[in-house]
Structures are given as C-alpha cells and as structure tokens.
C-alpha cells in the first residue's frame, strides 16, 4: 500500500518570513495520514529544516547537480542538500527543463546522485500543450519516464510527478479521465520496466493547478498517490485543506 504524499514546491518564492507558513502547517498536521514535503528555495533549506524539525513535515530541494562536488558555480550537490536538512529533491521540473535546458539523461544522472545520497528523487515529467494537441501525450510521458528515471528507482527512493506543462500555474486542469489515462499508463510502463512489486511501490503525483477546490476529485483518480503543488503550497491556509483532502482520499 503506497502512503500518499502531499508535496509543496515553493519555486522561487519565499524569504525568512515565509517560514511562519511552514510552522503553521507543521502545527496543524501533527500526525498526518499522508506524507508531507515542502521544497523551499535553497536559501531557506537550513532554516526550513530547523523549523520543521520534530514535525511530520519533510524538507526537500528543488534541484541538484549530478556531481558530488567541484567547479559548478551556482549549483548544489545532493550531499549539500542533505547536509542542509533535505530528505528529498525535485528533479526535472518543466521549469528546469525550459529555463535551463535540462534533458532526460541529465535528470537521470541527478536522480542517481540524489538516490546515492539517500534522498528521495521526485522526478517530474509532462507534456506541453502543443504535444498534447498533437496527440503525443503518452509518447512524451513514456520517453521522459524511460529517460529520466534511473535503474536504481524504487518506492523508497523515487516519486514520479506528472505535470502537464500547460496546467502549471494556469488554472487549467486536465479532465479526470486525462489524468487517469496518463497515471495508468505510467504505472504500466513502470511495471514493464521494474516488475509489479517495485512499480506498485512508486508513488505517482499529479501536479498543475491543484487547489483546495479540486484536490478531492483529483485524489480520487486511479493511480494518483498525491500531488506536487506550486502556488497553493505557499500559504498554510491553502495547502492544509489539500493535505486534508489527501488524507481523506
Ligand atoms: O511543482 C509544482 C507544479 O509546477 C504546479 O504548480 P502550480 O500548482 O502552481 O500549478
């Protein structure tokens, strides 16, 4: 049985004041029936880890380098994230793919590095609107899944987030049938690559304009094990009801 996961991606948002939101979230979900992960910007990682210490909220990074150390100005290694208090890292987010030209092989190498450090790799995949309109959604999802998920993936170290690029921050959400189609496909692809036992242990998150008003119906969809939430994870008042909906799903 997969434990549900509510993951919040603060993206390039938040300063020290924002830790009050994290504290409020931790306070109101003392013993949750789902895992909770907040991924603040790197500048807040250590302070977020301090704020969340002893609570049910885990802290994650938003990217890492594939190498352990070296001449990579501006980058952070998986070991550095772990040292700062992270237990997970988001990899291959479509904003990283678009803004930094990240490709599947590079994301796969980052995931290997993260897993090697004992972090949970939250690997993101998803089609653009043009790809969906061309009928290529499953082809893109399959290619990104195969290319960016390493051979070492297992339920204990890997989470897949399906995030249609056109649904991120737009208020547009795929139909529940469209979400189910992709999630069922991803589960089948994982099964054929890793076998049923491993595939059934890997959590599949949906991401893209999840909010309190649509969370419950999305969490009822086949093979949706939680959500990767952007905008609605910034305020405890928005993220908390999403977590509650997941706990009750
Ligand atoms: O990582 C989170 C996703 O990009 C979703 O962002 P959003 O909830 O603001 O649409």
Automatic annotation (TrEMBL):
What enzyme class is recorded for this protein?
Answer: isomerase
Q: Which residues bind substrate?
A: 9-11, 169, 209, 230-231
Pathways per UniProt: Carbohydrate biosynthesis; gluconeogenesis; Carbohydrate metabolism; erythritol degradation; Carbohydrate degradation; glycolysis; D-glyceraldehyde 3-phosphate from glycerone phosphate: step 1/1
**What UniProt keywords apply to this chain's record, in alphabetical order?**
Cytoplasm, Gluconeogenesis, Glycolysis, Isomerase
Active-site positions on this chain: 93, 163
Instruction: Name where it's found.
Output: Cytoplasm
> Known EC number(s)?
5.3.1.1
Q: Name one GO molecular function term.
A: triose-phosphate isomerase activity
The protein's matches in SUPFAM superfamilies, at most eight in alphabetical order, are given as:
Triosephosphate isomerase (TIM)
Query: Where does the protein principally reside?
Result: cytoplasm
Record field: catalytic activity: L-erythrulose 1-phosphate = D-erythrulose 4-phosphate; D-glyceraldehyde 3-phosphate = dihydroxyacetone phosphate
Q: Which family does it belong to?
A: Belongs to the triosephosphate isomerase family.
Subunit structure, as described in the record: Homodimer.
| Protein role | Involved in the gluconeogenesis. Catalyzes stereospecifically the conversion of dihydroxyacetone phosphate (DHAP) to D-glyceraldehyde-3-phosphate (G3P).
* UniProt-recorded name of the protein: Triosephosphate isomerase
